[in-house]
Every structure is written in C-alpha cells, then in structure tokens.
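Fresh eyes needed here. Have a critical look at this protein's tokenised backbone.
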Amino acid sequence: MDSLIQSNMSTPSFGARTFFQKIWDDHVIADLGDNSYLLQIDRLFLHEVSGGVALRELHHAGRGIDSPRQVFTAIDHVVNIYPGRVAGQGRNATASAMIAETITESARHALQVFQVGDPRQGIVHVISPELALALPGLTLVCADSHTCTVGGVGTLGWGVGSSECVHVLATQTLVQSKPKTMRIWFDGELPTGVGAKDMALHLIAQIGANGGIGYAIEFAGDAVRALPVEARLTLCNMAIECSARYALIAPDNATYAYLANREFAPRGLAWDEALAFWKTLPSDAGATFDMELHIDCTRIAPQITWGTSPQHSSPIDGAVPAPTDFDDTATRALAERALAYQHLVPGTPYRDVRIDVAYIGSCTNARLSDLRAAAEILRGRKVAAGVMAICVPGSSRVKAEAEALGIDRVFREAGFEWLESGCAMCATGGADRLADKRVISTTNRNFENRQGPSTRTHLASPATVAASAVVGYLADPRMLTMAEHNPSYQAHSTQTAR
C-alpha cells in the first residue's frame, strides 16, 4: 500500500465544517439521541423492483404521500433492453408485472414516471443528475445501494430499503445514524489512459471492501478536480464497494456548468440564489475529518479485477496474484475461493486470459463520456472472433446523443450490439446470455453469479473493455497499438484461462 498514506495532521479550526457536515446540519429535524437523527429528505426515487411494493404498502396503510412533487419513478431495473421494446415490457413476465404495478401505483399518487417511450427514461443514477433532480446540498434516497453516485454533483444520496421508502413517502423524513467522515485525496496528475473507474478500483484494492464502513467519504485533490462531472459520478458510484454509504465531491465551476439549463435545474433568479448557496458548501479551511487518506495518482495504472470482489483488483499490465501474496488467513482463503470460481491460475499474465464477452453498461460507466472513450478505441477496429460484445447506454438521452454523434455506428461497425437503456446485465440480467462465460464489464460488482449463473466477471473501465473486445483477451488499452503490430502480445501461455 505504498500509494496510500494516512494523515491526521490537519489543524482544527473553531466553527469550520466539512461539506458533509453542512448538508447534514441543514437537514436535521431532530436529534433523537444515541447518534440517531431525524433528517429531511428532499428527493425520493422509486423503481419497479421495490417502488410498486412501497406504494402499495402506503395505500393499504391508508396514508398519502407527504410531498408528491419530490418523488419520482424510474423504470430501469428489469426493463427490456432489446430493440422494438414497448412501454411496460420487462425482460420476462414477472418483470412486466412489476413494471405494471409500479406504473399503476405511481399514477394513483400522480407521481412523475420516466418509462419506456419517454426520452428521459434511463437508469435512476444516470438520469437523476442528467435531469438536475440531483443538486448540490440536497438529500436524495432510492432503494438501490449505488445512490451514492449522485455525490458526484454534490448531492448527499444513499440507498434505502422498501420499508424506508414507505416512511419517506409518508413523512419526507428518515432516521439515520451520523457517520464518521473520511477525506480521500487523489494527489498528482493521472497518467494517460487512467480514469475514474481505475481510481476507484485502485482505492478499493488498497483499503479493502470494508474500508469505508461507518464513513461518509469526501473525494478531493487535484486529480478529482480535473475529472469531468460524469467521471466524478463514476468515482462516487463505487464508494459503496468499500462499504461507504455516502460519497461526496464538493461542487465547483464544472458542477455548475454541468447542471445549468437542465430540465429541473433552477432558472433565473432561483439559479442565482442556488449558485450563491452552492458556493458556500465546500469544506471550510481547517475543517477536520475523522480520517484522511492520500493516494499518489501517478502510480495508478488501468485496473482489472481478478476475483469476486472489487477489492480483488490490480494493474492490468500485471498478473493474477496468488493467495500466498496476502498476509492474513481470512484474506488468503477468500482469494483461494475467488480464483477457483474465476478459473484462474496464479501468475497468469492478464493478457493471457481470454474473454467470452465484453459488456459496456450500468450506472457506473454508461454515460456519454464513457461511450466516447470506448468508441475512441473501437473506431476502425473489429471485435475479436468469438467475443460477444454488448453496449447498453445508461439512459435514452445518452443513447440519442450518442446516435446523433455517430457513436452508435462506431460500436455497430466494430461488432457490438447496440441496445436500449436500462440496468440490463448488471445484476442477474444476463442470466440468459452470460451464464458460465468470462465477461469483462464496466459494471460495479463482480460477485459470484452477479451477472448470471457461474458468470466470471472482470471489472474495468470502458477503454479497457473496448480494448479487450478487440484483442479477445484482457487487454491494457495503452498497449492496443502495440498489440496490432506485435503478435506476441496476443500470445497466451499454456495456463490460459477460459
């Protein structure tokens, strides 16, 4: 962990507050004691997996919605993503029934629904900032653990359960325990070919899948400030993978430019007032955090996961680790199980690991900038023989914008399937096509059976997925040109994994 330095050297300043503390203080309705607080919730997003159930429970309880204008429904999790889909169509009969109930219950309460056929439809964590429903300083909850994504625009967002959704629907409040705070500095300039997904995977490999338990994380540093807003959303999206419920990046000029003139953004005088408020939100000089970590960005390379947790990540120009590389018994045991599930042999160079599927999609990496990054690799190239390549844009707007720019043609001509927006093959949605296959994916989780029965998932950035699709093996995107001119790059050892 030579790129990770723990620091608690900041000097406290009386009255100075962190960004997280400011949002928390603004939303506390009551201190309930024992570190529990009743918080005001500004936005609630529902989706078809749990939204219909929550609304039905509310109706059966004889309760109404406290503030219907603050509640939105996205049809995204189990929606059909194949061309020719129609409104209300799920990926199977059960999914269609879930969608139907959610739409019916949302209509009962006059909620705004973003469904198939609406140009604003898409994955909830993509469309909430895309529509400026996520704004700096607001609280936003959704029955999905990756709601922390919206921290990329300065929104305090977190995942909740369906029963908590009912409470928010009825009261616009929620009881929460106050977490500790952690600031993670990404120092220095990112090397060429390294992006937000690589930063996130590198961090999780360093601090572990449990490293963020009990913390609200603020990402800071020159490398974070240099990230475009969509990349900041990616970084915050992955915070839950180190068990941090909350993740934030303080708003700045890039945030304001991103949000300006979007559908639900403030207008006119309201925009001026909001902007003045947003500029007060960044952590004060001298604000103290319970923990501060520093990561040297110059040492980060494109990352690939080798196991069954995002913490099982290492530079893609390296090799599969051995269980004996880890110090403690529990970690070694997890590594042994992961390697057995992944059918990988320790010491195998990643470039020798052949893939079956290349998948670009999910709330982590399916925004327009992600598709652009992949298209830069794919332009003028073809997917390797035997590789199934799939792209699922994160929203209908992303899909339309990509098509207007001709990005879809780049994907199609390379050999990718170009599908409709939705959560798709992130969580078990690929059971019918990805079962027992090795997949390199832009998604956020590589757990056992996550993308389908016995599916072996390797997490990576869009550029790395695109490069691997072309080469047919796990490929360093920086080396793609070399691979075209040096056939030995594609040669694989006798230990090649399938």
About this structure: Residues 489-496 have pLDDT under 50 and may be disordered.
